[in-house]
Amino acid sequence: MTGWIHRALSRRTVRALRGKKVVVVESPNEKLVYAVKFAISIILCLSGLEVASMALIHTWNSEVFAAVSGLIGTVTGIIVGQKA
């Protein structure tokens, strides 16, 4: 799971060096990769909790949905902010 997260958070820049184009890849901080991995796993756990709530209790839990929405926004903001 870390491979695609690491690639998504890496920056790629193209520089001209002596007439040749060189692609420079800047790796993200490992703490950032672990934080994104943790947030994605929490999103999956909360989504499973929401599905279980709907299947067993037959009700929509708005608090769990709000937490999932907030975490999705956070992860998206991290990935978009890291690319800029």
Strand and helix layout:
Blueprint: H1 2-9, E1 11-17, E2 20-26, H2 30-56, H3 62-83
Antiparallel strand pairs: 1-2
Helix pairs in contact: 1-2, 2-3
Could you please describe the fold and organization of this structure?
The chain is an alpha+beta fold. Helices cover 68% and strands 17% of the residues. Strands 1-2 form a two-stranded antiparallel sheet. Helix 1 (2-9) packs across helix 2 (30-56) and helix 2 packs antiparallel against helix 3 (62-83).
* Percentage beta strand: 15-25%
Radius of gyration: 18 Å
The span between the termini is 23 Å
Report the helical percentage. Answer: 55-70%
Total discrete domains: 1
Structural class: alpha+beta
DSSP summary: helix tally:
3
What does the largest sheet look like?
2 strands, antiparallel
The main sheet orders its strands as 1-2
User: What is the typical, i.e. mean, pLDDT?
Assistant: 89
Low-confidence stretches: none
Could you give the order of the helices and strands? HEEHH
Overall geometry comes to rod-shaped
Number of strands: 2
